[in-house]
Amino acid sequence: ALSSAASDVYKRQIITLANKESIATVIEIVRKGNEQDKYTTYGCRFVGVSPEDRFKINVYQIVDEAEKNK
Predict the structure, then answer these.
(1) How far apart are CA 60 and CA 66, in angstroms?
(2) Is 37 left (phi over 0), alpha (psi -120 to 50) or beta?
(3) pLDDT of residue 62
(4) What are phi and psi of 67, to 5 degrees?
(5) Fewer CB within 10 Å, N or C, the chain?
(6) 70 contacts 63 by C-beta, under 8 angstroms
(7) How far apart are CA 23 and CA 19, in angstroms?
(8) Using 50, 70 and 90 to split pLDDT, how confident is the model at 26?
């Protein structure tokens, strides 16, 4: 398993939120690990998100939190 040494890996990615909105972004992989050799998990951070897509994420988070608090 690779640890935080993966921090120089950048990837363009299209992410689809649960509400079916899609955002184009660049992510930096900051860690990678395996759980029982069956699943690979990644930790990442967003390094390239347009203002419009950042707005979509903010709205999604507000709506998601409101739904959870019902």
Answers:
(1) 10
(2) left
(3) 92
(4) -65, -40
(5) C
(6) no
(7) 12
(8) very high
60 vs 68: CA distance, rounded Å:
12
Order of all β-strands in the sheet with 39-49: 9-16, 22-35, 39-49
Q: What's the CA gap between 59 and 37, in Å, rounded?
A: 36
* Residue from 33, 35, 30 nearest 9 by CA: 30
Q: Cβ of 63: how many Cβ atoms within 10 Å? A: 13
Q: For residue 24, which amino acid is it?
A: A
Q: pLDDT band at 4, cuts 50/70/90?
A: very low
Q: pTM for the complete prediction? A: 0.58
Report the candidate in 15, 28, 17, 31 with the shortest Cα–Cα distance to residue 63.
17
Tokens at residue 34, please? 């395996």
